[in-house]
Amino acid sequence: MINRVIVLSTLILAFALTINWFMTESEETADFTPGNEPDLYMLNATISQFGSDGELQHRITANRFTHFPLTDLTTMKSPALALGRTQDANPWEITSIEGRILPSSDYREEIVELWSDVLASQSGNGSAFVNLRTNSLTIYPARDFAETDEQVIITNQSGRTTAVGMKAFLNIGKFMLYSTPEHRVTTLFLPN
Predict the structure, then answer these.
(1) Taking 80 as the threshold, does the pLDDT of residue 25 lie above it?
(2) 40-189: which CATH topology?
(3) What does the angle CA 35 – CA 40 – CA 45 come to, to the nearest 5 degrees?
(4) Which pLDDT does position 160 carry in this prediction?
(5) Distance CA 20, CA 67 (A)
(6) Greater pLDDT, 156 or 7
(7) What is the pTM for the complete model shown?
(8) Domain segments of the chain: what residues?
(9) Which of 13, 68, 104, 178 has its CA 20 to 30 A from that of 52?
């Protein structure tokens, strides 16, 4: 009888040790894939982008930059983008409440996306100016190109234009405006 108790106790102990060993092994080999936690952030910083010729292409200032390594994108709080080459006398100043930077890769060029109260302004000589207001704007800094599929309001010294979408070639001042059957492109001219 005592032998049966000893054998049974030994079997139970061996079973418990085996289960413990398997559980420890499974915890060590479990694949804990890291999340997309930020690996870098900067407060009140400026990022300057230079071209291959060494000239300044654009500069982005923000209250906060946060970089996420898994997706390789950088979010921004209160970004301000100065878009224009060093020799440009009148760069575009573009601000918003939120934004993000998608860096260039083998498959795409660098993209800056801005949203929430986007204002793009360019001051000219004297009283000349252009202001663009929209809720979101996608900017391709290398080409000085911007687009939106949301309502845009363009004002200048001559008047005000509204459209439901836009493609803008900012370096040459060419704007392609879009409408729908319900919302036409409208322009109001102001007297000088």
Answers:
(1) no
(2) lipopolysaccharide transport protein A fold (2.60.450)
(3) 145
(4) 94
(5) 41
(6) 156
(7) 0.77
(8) 1-32, 40-189
(9) 68
Q: Indicate the pairing of strand 98-102 with strand 73-77.
A: antiparallel
Measure the CA–CA gap between 131 and 42, rounded to whole angstroms. Answer: 29
Three-class secondary structure assignment of the chain: CHHHHHHHHHHHHHHHHHHHHHHHHHHHHCCCCCCCCCCEEEEEEEEEEECCCCCEEEEEEEEEEEEECCCCEEEEECCEEEECCCCCCCCEEEECCEEEEECCCCCCCCEEEEEEEEEEEEECCCCCEEEEEEEEEEEEHHHCEEEECCCEEEEECCEEEEECEEEEECCCCEEEEECCCCCCCEEEECCC
Instruction: Indicate the average pLDDT of the chain.
Output: 86
Query: What's the rounded mean pLDDT across residues 97-114?
Result: 92
Judged by phi (left if over 0) then psi (alpha if -120 to 50, else beta), residue 159 lies in: left
Query: In one letter, which amino acid is 96?
Result: S
